[in-house]
Design a protein that fits this description.
globular; Spore Coat Polysaccharide Biosynthesis Protein SpsA, Chain A; two-stranded antiparallel ribbon; alpha/beta; 11 strands; glucosamine-1-phosphate N-acetyltransferase activity; UDP-N-acetylglucosamine diphosphorylase activity
Amino acid sequence: MQGKGLAAVILAAGKGTRMCSDLPKVLHPLGGRPLLLHVLDALRPLAPERIVIVVGYQADRVRQAVPEGVAQFVEQTEQLGTGHAVQQTEGTLADFSGHALILCGDMPLIRPETLQDLVARHRELAAACTLLSLKSKGKKDFGRVIRTPEGRVDRIVENKDATPQEKTVDEYNSGVYCFQKSILFKALKGVDNRNAQQEYYLTDTVARINREGLAVEAIQTSDASELIGINSLEDLVAAERLFSQRASNP
């Protein structure tokens, strides 16, 4: 079975202040359905053994939006960053061994095929971590994927922490990863919040894994539409337009 040994973790704890609404960000509708349900749809063909959703703001409301039995939930009571959010799942996944696919609940246009390719490549290379990146000449406020002179993934630097030179890099981090689960939680234990946002970044695990001499890989997409995260009403309008175009040209 394709999803054997695969757990999916969806980060869905944020309020989404820029949405100018009391509705949790992941419950804003796209095509008449909550953003979070589109992400769950994208996971369905992978048939993961476990799906864990990290909730926070209006946690009960988010739980109620998900069909019963589809996922487990853990609560991030303080939003202290993506690394902190993933750490909340460690107890729930204590009895699981395999790979953890991590993605955001506000990325409704991610394609199942892209997630399948990511997991397949991760397994094929026996990597500790495989990330999805975007190669684009367009300016994005995403983190940058920093590579060694030999072309290997070295680390990820968040946009707010990047130097002017690092901001010239045209390979962007998508926020979608596949990790060996045991390596993920070991790396998270060493992550600190000494950065511009004083948050615990999941991205910092990449450098830590590299320092252990383990393999970090990346697959690239050139389709920026897949990676749209909904952070504002303008983002939602843009995503609605793209969603309609996909429906017209499947």
